[in-house]
UniProtKB/TrEMBL annotation:
Species: Tuber magnatum
Protein name listed in UniProt: Methyltransferase
Spans traversing the lipid bilayer: none
MF terms (GO), sorted A to Z: methyltransferase activity
Cited Gene3D superfamilies: Vaccinia Virus protein VP39
Domain named Methyltransferase: residues: 44-146
Superkingdom field: Eukaryota
Keywords: Methyltransferase, Transferase
Pfam family, one: Methyltransf_25
GO biological process: methylation
């Protein structure tokens, strides 16, 4: 769920994420949890576990679950509010995978299943060679025939907000190329994702792409931009950031807001859901 690189400020807030901006992240998970199909004997690795809300729920259906995340702020909340006897939470940025051979944090072939919800589009926003190394390392963490179930953003996800952010920053003199480089997300096509998983050694068994129009709590587009668009906002001085947010909200008002006066605002999330199996021994 929450991912940030260790070289940047940890801007994630469990309160903002879970209570204010994105409570839907842990709630809209029926399809990906169905792909995971947790069983009582499973040992599961949860990549980008965030505040642990979903991790704790999954713990009720498996032998053990190990959640990793790059945000210590989110993990502090997970440990405080969503610890169970069979959960473990570790501060680990998945972009640092594979770990050194001497590391004992994630031993090879120690998980029957790997799970990730709403995190891989953050984690895999790295150069393509690093992207495949991350997935190869995850492949090696699975037992033979172990499975990897994940949901993440697909090509075109949140395009209306993304476009409005680019325009607002360009209006303030930021070069388009700088804005593109600051984008914190990797939203692949089905073809791109299938190719990546296959090259990392997986057999892709199921793949879905789905539009999920997602209603923001209290129609708070500004809160969404502050939390998820932080990487863009850092391109301008702090005193300019609220102006960027106001412009984005104004531009999107007639795009995503329901026209019945209710104030409801929907963002066009497009999701990839994948079930892949470890190939070989």
């Amino acid at each position: 769920m929450a991912q940030s690189t260790s070289t940047t400020k940890d801007h994630w807030s469990s309160k903002a994420y879970t209570e204010e901006v994105a409570p839907f992240v842990a709630e809209l998970t029926t399809e990906v949890v169905s792909l995971l199909d947790p069983q009582p004997t499973d040992k599961i690795l949860d990549i980008g576990c965030g505040d642990g809300v979903l991790t704790a729920r999954l713990s009720q259906h498996c032998s053990s679950i190990h959640g990793i995340d790059s945000s210590e702020n989110m993990l502090s909340s997970a440990r405080a509010h969503h610890s169970t006897p069979n959960t473990t939470y570790t501060h680990l940025d998945a972009t640092h995978l594979p770990l050194p051979a001497t590391s004992t944090i994630l031993p090879p072939q120690s998980f029957t299943k790997i799970f990730s919800n709403a995190a891989l589009h953050w984690i895999l926003r790295v150069p393509p060679p690093q992207r495949i190394e991350i997935l190869k390392s995850l492949h090696n963490l699975l037992v033979p025939s172990g499975t990897f179930a994940a949901e993440f953003g697909a090509h075109g996800s949140c395009a209306e907000v993304h476009t409005a952010l680019i325009a607002a920053l360009v209006h303030r003199g930021v070069a388009v190329e700088m804005v593109r480089k600051a984008c914190p997300w990797w939203f692949p096509t089905e073809e791109e994702a299938r190719k990546l998983w296959s090259e990392a050694g997986f057999v892709v068994e199921k793949f879905q792409v789905a539009l999920r129009q997602t209603e923001l709590p209290q129609g708070d587009v500004g809160g969404w931009v502050r939390l998820f668009g932080n990487g863009f906002l850092e391109l301008v001085q702090e005193k300019e950031r609220e102006g960027v947010i106001r412009e984005v909200v104004s531009v999107l008002e007639s795009v995503g807001q329901v026209g019945d006066g209710s104030g409801v605002f929907r963002v066009n999330y497009i999701r990839c859901r994948i079930l892949a199996r470890r190939r070989g021994v």
